[in-house]
Structures are given as structure tokens and as C-alpha cells.
Amino acid sequence: MDKSEAKIRVLKLRDLIDKYRYDYHVLDKETISPAILDSLKKELFDLETQFPELITKDSPTQRVGGAPLASFKKVQHEQKMISLNDAFSSQDLEDWLTRLKNYLSKDAPLSINSFYCDPKMDGLAVELVYDDGAFIQGSTRGDGEVGEDITQNLRTIEAIPLKLTNSPAGKIIARGEVFLTKKEFARINKEQSKKGEALFANPRNIAAGSLRQLDPKITASRKLDFFAYVLVSDLGQKTLNESYQLLNHLGFKTNPLGKTVKDLRDIFAFQKELGKKREHLDYEIDGVVVTINETKTFQLAGVVGKAPRGAIAFKFPAEEQTTVVENIRVQIGRTGAITPVADLKPVQVAGATIKHATLHNEDEIKRLGLKIGDTVIISRAGDVIPKIIKVLPELRTGTEKTFKMPSVCPIDGAKILKDGAIYRCSNSRCGARSRQNLYHFVSRCAFNIEHLGPKIIDRFFDEGLISDSADIFTLEEDEIKVLERFGDKSAQNIVQEINERKTITLPRFLYALGIRNVGEETARLLAQHFSTRYPLPATRANIITPSSILTATSLVTIENLQTISDIGPVVAQSIFDWFRDSHNQNLLEKLSTVGIKIQNKQKSTSNANLASKTFVLTGTLKSMSRDEAKEKIRALGGEVSSSISKKTNYLLAGENPGSKLAKAQSLGVKILTEPEFLKILK
Fold first, then answer.
1. What confidence score (pLDDT) does residue 535 get?
2. Which of the 8 DSSP states describes residue 639?
3. Measured distance CA(466)–CA(469) in Å, rounded
4. CA distance 142 to 69
5. d(CA 332, CA 353)
6. Which domains does the chain show, CATH number per domain?
7. Residue 355: count of CB within 10 angstroms of its CB
8. On the chain, which terminus has fewer CB atoms closer than 10 Å, C or N?
């Protein structure tokens, strides 16, 4: 994105964020989820970081909270109540620490010895003022400089001390979070339901609304709670950890889960462990507040925009995020059903990177009002398959495009017909044929990807993750583990095996292409023909790419294909037609792009010790698989057949041989044990 595009995006983001922030912070109305508001703010922050000249004083990144309500007395904070910037990933946190260290090293080299990690409460920040130990004033954050005087309402909260213990003389200022427990939230909504009144959306809304009640009795009835998290007054504390200890000493309640940690690794571990406890806590949290523990270093880090440099909110993976629809393509299912799939700008949702979302049908696209290029909200609540739940038309620039269902099938060019809400390829075998090609491609004698059985291929095919064999090698763990009945381990195993299978021999590769009438033996002969008659460009390790095969096949004629042993007119025509098909040519190019490497080790067989010898295999071998044995035989000039005849030279018999053993004995074919076979290979 260049500066002019960024400027347009920044202006639209600011307008939308301001609207949602006003609803949320001033009116206490949740018109969009906090996660989406965070996502929009993060995008704006990133753009302003990339183009700092676009930052203005009225940007949402430079402001805190909302304007104070007119119905309360205004309170001027002695020190500005600033809020925190957010980090949504480990990379965000690493970037924050890098920026922080770079800033601190400008004037005087300072080392960061430790951090304090505290659960980030989902409540309302307040400031408490005490004089000679007595509570005299309480206020909201407001715009950071001026808040609302809610002293009487705060007095109703049992967790807020009205008189400090062990307090020195003079003024003491502390800050913390007012919140509502999950238990109280359920109780209040139950009462609302009995009255036939609207239910509250979340505990945070009730807490905020309760503190802004003009009648303290209503606030008292809500049974709010409180955790202190900062001692503003200087009582000699040198670290945030000491500040927490002093707060406890004065009689404040602090979150017992907070702790001091040494480095990023500890921070990641703390967040992960807290995430496991999250559902079992009696209050809502949405992440971890990470702060430089040393008070002096924190103060020297100062403030940037609306937030301190020395602290950040490390959020839990959001179940909703915003992203951009970069394209909409169609996927052909097993039954020929055509499903639109959105290709997304990659985004982290609930701990997984999401790049695609199924749109189900054309009606769903119309319901959403979706266009290519739109900013959308992606949801993945409860680890379910990600889906687009809303379009944000306010962020449109006019360059968005309307999607239209194709009139012909992108696989075979057949006409597309509408069947109710579903579009289908008129060729009833279209989806099934594509699926069978994928089964063949990953089979034992081809790429041999054992974790991709037919059911898993079907699932990936129908979900729009793969449409051809090249797509297999673009699969990532995150897009697999979000599918129902798939987890982290199964996704890891699948992707690991796929990556291990990116290198393949030329005969296996040609067989994997699924050319009609080309079996294992024909593929081997074809590979030898290409290598000897049309030398393929290769590296020193005899590695070629799928696209380089196009160079050789462009010179092939039906006549010279028929010069290959056992290849007649029908097979030659199949091979010739396959390599002339534009769809297949594109596939070879795509296979090169995804990193497929082909080993072209064609040895001369004129002096090979198995030249012109025919083998048949039966039973199980201990030292190698039967496929490996076949490759070794062929590498030494031998041939492999699937059936016994008088022309068979050897039957290689492993453990538990089948009926071929008896037939070989009756025909007088020499039978080799595995040890005898290994001697021949030497």
C-alpha cells in the first residue's frame, strides 16, 4: 500500500473507530465487539507507524477513552490516565520490545531486567484519592485528563477501602479496575429476564453503566468488585512488584495471578498458562498487561501518543478479526456443486492464520452484500470453521468489484446450471474426476502421502483448501486445524509429511500426473525416453522442475512416442494430448512454483547386471518396501511385472507370499529370497 492509498484507508478507519468508540465509551452501547474495535485500532496504529506523517492530534490512536458525561462533576487528574496499545501476536510483542529498547538506548543505555505480568481485566478504569488515609474522591478515566466524579458510587463497592491501613499522612492516589463477576452478571440478567427487560451484553457494560448511575443505591445493588493495579503516589517503590506489595499493605485488593518474569519466553508462557485458566476465573479477562518492572526505566520510557512505551496489552487470540477479501474463486465439489470461496488477506483468528473462508453459495454473498476488495469481519468462535459474518462498507474506496458466478466450469469448461440455491457443473463426473485425480496423485506408487487418505482429500476438496494437486503443497497447519475433528497434532503430521514428499523420482512423478493409459512401467519407460532423447535441464544433483518437462514434451510427437517399447498409438495419443492441454501445462508450472523437485537419475542399463531380466514381487520385505525394491531393479536395468509367466526370470518372495509363489514353482521360475536379492543388488 502506497502513501496515497494509506491516507484514504486511515481517514476511513478513523471515522469508523470514532463512531464505535463513542458508542462504547460514552454511551455504553456495544454496537460491535471489542475484538473488532481492537482489530480496527491495530490496523490504524500499524498504518500510522508505517506513515508517521499521517498521524494527527485527533486520531483515535492519540486519545484515551471518551469525553466525560455532562451529568457528573468534572475531575482533573493530577497525572494523565493513559491507556495501553495492544499486541495480538508474539511478533507484535517482539516488535514492541525492539522499539522500546531502541528508544531507551538513545540517551542513556538502560537494561530491562524484568517485566510484571498482570491479567488484563475487562472492566472500567478508575482513580481513587485518599487524604490521611480517608477516601475522598473517585473518578473515571474520561478523556485521560478530565474524568467524571463518581465518588458516591465507588463508596458502594466493598472491595474499595474507605480507610487505608498503614497509610502515611497526606494524599495517596491509586488506580484500578472496577468489574462485575460472571456470577453477578448471570444473576442480574436473570432478574432482567423476569422483568421482561432487555438483557445486558456483557459484564463490562453493566460495570460501566452501574458506575454512571445517579442513584448510588442502583450501583450498590449490582455488587461490583475491584482490583488495584497501580500506585500513582511515590512511596519509595522501585519496581512495579513493590508497588503491588505496597497496595496490599495499604489495604487494597490486587489480582493474585500477577507475577514478575524475566524475558519474552516467560511472558509467552504466562499468557499461555493464563489462557488455560481463563474460562475458570470468576471474572472476564482479555489478555495480559506487560509492564517494565523497574519504575525508573518505565518513567524514562515516557509516552508515545496515548500509551506508555513501557507497557502493552498482550491480548488473547481474538475470535473475531477484520481482514480484506482479496478475491473470490469457485471450488468444484465431489458432486459437481460449485461453491464460492473467499481468498483473504491472512489474519490471525483464535490462534490460527486464516487465508480462506467458504461463502456457501451466491445467496450468501448477496445477503452479506459482499464485494471483492471489501473489509470484512471473520469469526471463528469455539474453534469452528472460520466464516465471514459482516461487511464493513464504510471502508470501501470505490475500487471494489461485484462477484459473478461463472457460466462455465473452470475445470472442464462444461456449462454451469443452477439447482435451487446451488450451482452445479453440467458434467456429472466433473467433481468426481478431480477427486479421483487427487487420490491417484497421493497414492503409494506416486507421491505416497499416507496421511492424505480419500476422506481427508474429500474434506479438503469440499472446504476449498485444494482444487488441484499443486494446492496440496500449499496447505498450512493453521487452515487444517480449524476444521472440525482436526487438531494441532493431525495438522502438524499432515503438513510435515507433505513437505517431506516434495522431492520425487521422474518415473513416479510422471505416474502421479494420472495420464490416461500410463501405468508405473510406462511411466518408467517414458522417463527414460525423455532423459535420453530430450535431455532435461538439471542441477548437479540431477534435480529438475516440473515446468522443465514442458520444454522436452513440446518437442515430442506421436510418432517418436511410438518408438518407445510397449507404447502403441492409443497410449502415445494419450500422452501427447495430456502435455498439449493448457490446464495440464498450468498445473506443471504451478507444481514448480510450490517447490516440487524431481530426481532425474536415469542410469545406463547397457552393462547393468539385471539388464533384460523380468521380476515379479510377492509377500512383505523386511529391509525395504516393495516399491523401493522395484526402483532398485529398474535402476539396474531390470523390469518389473505384476503377473507370472514363462518369460519371468525371477520371483522375489518375501514373508507371507501369495498365490504367485505356487505358480512360479509350477512354471519353473527361479525364486529369490530377500537375502539372495540383496546379494544381487551388490
1. 62
2. E
3. 7
4. 8
5. 24
6. 3-62 (1.10.287.610), 74-315 (3.30.470.30), 320-425 (2.40.50.140), 504-599 (1.10.150.20), 614-681 (3.40.50.10190)
7. 19
8. C
pLDDT at 668: 92
Extract the C-alpha cell encoding 263: 524475558
| pLDDT on residue 463 | 80
pLDDT in tens, 303-333: 887 789 999 999 887 778 899 999 998 887 7
Least confident of 306-310, 609-613, 650-654: 609-613
Reading phi first (left if > 0) and then psi (alpha if -120 to 50, else beta), residue 244 is in: alpha
Asked if 267 and 261 touch (Cβ cutoff 8 Å), the reply is: yes
Mean pLDDT of the region 445-473:
89
DSSP state of 22: I
Residue 169 CA from chain centroid, whole number: 54
- Examine the pLDDT at 273 and tell me if it is beyond 70: yes
Distances (CA, A) of 336 to 250, 339, 360, 416, 500: 71, 9, 14, 9, 32
Can you say which residues are annotated as belonging to the binding site? 83-84, 118, 141, 177, 315, 409, 430
Binding-site residues for NAD(+), in ranges, read 83-84, 118, 141, 177, 315
**What confidence tier does 212 reach under pLDDT thresholds 50, 70, 90?**
confident
- CA dihedral (31, 34, 36, 41) positive or negative: positive
List alpha helices for 323-402, DSSP H: 362-368
682 vs 252, more confident = 252
Instruction: Give the per-residue pLDDT at 606.
Output: 44
Strand 614-618 and strand 650-653: pairing? parallel
Q: Which of 20-34, 290-304, 339-353, 579-593 has the lowest mean pLDDT?
A: 20-34
Q: What is the pairing mode between strands 124-131 and 171-179?
A: antiparallel
Cell 502506497 belongs to which residue?
Answer: 2
Taking the alpha carbons at both ends of the chain, their separation in whole angstroms is 61
* Cα 288 to Cα 681: distance, rounded to the nearest angstrom: 63
pLDDT value of position 393: 94
Residue 120 annotated among the catalytic residues of the structure? yes
CA separation for the pair 488, 478 (Å, rounded): 8
Task: Show binding-site residues for Zn(2+).
Answer: 409, 430
User: Quick one: pLDDT band at residue 593, thresholds 50, 70, 90?
Assistant: very high
Catalytic-role residue among 12, 41, 42, 120: 120
Q: What is the sign, positive or negative, of the torsion defined by CA atoms of 322, 326, 329, 331?
A: negative
Check pLDDT > 90 for residue 589.
Answer: yes
Candidates 444, 611, 576; CA nearest to 520 is 444
291 or 607: which leads in pLDDT: 291
Query: 18: exposed, middle or buried (C-beta count within 10 Å: 0-12, 13-18, 19+)?
Result: middle
What would the DSSP string read from start to end of 261-295? E-SHHHHHHHHHHHHHHGGGSSS-EEEEEEEESBH
Q: What is the pTM of this model?
A: 0.55
- Spatial CA neighbour of 322 closest among 89, 33, 94: 33
Give residue 653's Cα distance to chain centre. 49
> How would you write 51-84 as a 3-class SS string?
CHHHCCCCCHHHCCCCCCCCCCCEEECCCCCCCC
CB 150 within 8 A of CB 72: yes
Single out the residue of 283, 355, 349, 344 nearest to residue 318, CA to CA. Answer: 349
Tell me the residue type at 495. V
DSSP string, 539-561: -TT-EE-HHHHHHHHTT--HHHH
Instruction: Measure the CA–CA gap between 338 and 329, rounded to whole angstroms.
Output: 10
Report helix, strand or coil for 517: coil
Q: Does pLDDT of 603 surpass 60? A: no
SS3 content of the chain, % helix, strand, coil (to 5): 40, 20, 40
Between CA 675 and CA 484 the distance in angstroms is 47
Phi/psi of residue 202, each to 5°? Answer: -160, 165
